[in-house]
Amino acid sequence: MPGDVVVLDAGDRVPADLRLVAVDELHVDESALTGESDPVVKEAVALPVETALADRANMAYSTSLASRGAGRGVVVATGADTEIGRIHRLVGEAETLQTPLTRKISRFSQLLTVVILALAALTFGLGLLRGQPAAEMLTAAVALAVGAIPEGLPAVVTITLAIGVSRMARRRAVIRRLPAVETLGSTSVICTDKTGTLTANAMTVTTVVAGGREVEVTGTGYGAGERCAATAW
């Protein structure tokens, strides 16, 4: 609850947004919030309200990890009111943008609808002018409208995109939404976060130099399959 006092030690997960009032060499890993892989040194100092999120050294945010030292802080926000909760809320409120393909299909569908309705109305009107029964002309107009609708278009588009998804999967690219395949084909620049997206936020040893010898370490991460190959200096 806001107002509660929380004591942090190395290895603790910050349970809420805290205003730090006392620290002892406290370092906090905020990579989940800011993307910064290096632990942030915290201080119990007063800062201006307009200080940027990544520069607020007197705050410890929910879901961050105390990697070193200790500290004590007062809870100022919990749950959806925390900074990480605000980010989740903004992500949930984000609008789903249409891809170039879906925009073109939407415009084509609107144009096709107008043309079909116009032809159906024209058929019905000409039939009445020629003295045909209204019921028969209404049936003919409806039949014309139904027959002119390209019912196979959605299936063709879906199958085509599914083939693209399958080809991307063979290249280890997972596509969650079918229209994204066409968007990727039109992409020239990709802006992405590095830590946690392109990298795992974990250092990997590749070479060890000790006692005049150089040892190369194979493998990645913390798996058990690593091997060391010693070579002379």
Distance between the termini: 59 Å
Order of helices and strands: EEHEEEHHHHHEEE
Strand content: 15-25%
Number of domains: 3
| Mean pLDDT over the residues | 82
What is the name of the CATH class of the largest domain? Mainly Beta
Main β sheet profile? 5 strands, antiparallel
Per CATH, which architecture of the largest domain? Answer: Distorted Sandwich
Count the E strands.
8
Structure description:
With 233 residues, the protein is α+β, with helices and mostly antiparallel strands. The protein has 3 domains: 5-92, Calcium-transporting ATPase, cytoplasmic transduction domain A, CATH 2.70.150.10; 100-151; 203-233, no CATH class. 36% of the residues lie in helices and 21% in strands. The chain contains 6 helices and 8 strands, in the order E-E-H-E-E-E-H-H-H-H-H-E-E-E. A hairpin with a 2-residue loop joins strand 6 (207-210) and strand 7 (213-217). The longest helix is centred in the middle third of the chain and has 30 residues, at 100-129. The model has no long low-confidence stretch (mean pLDDT 82).
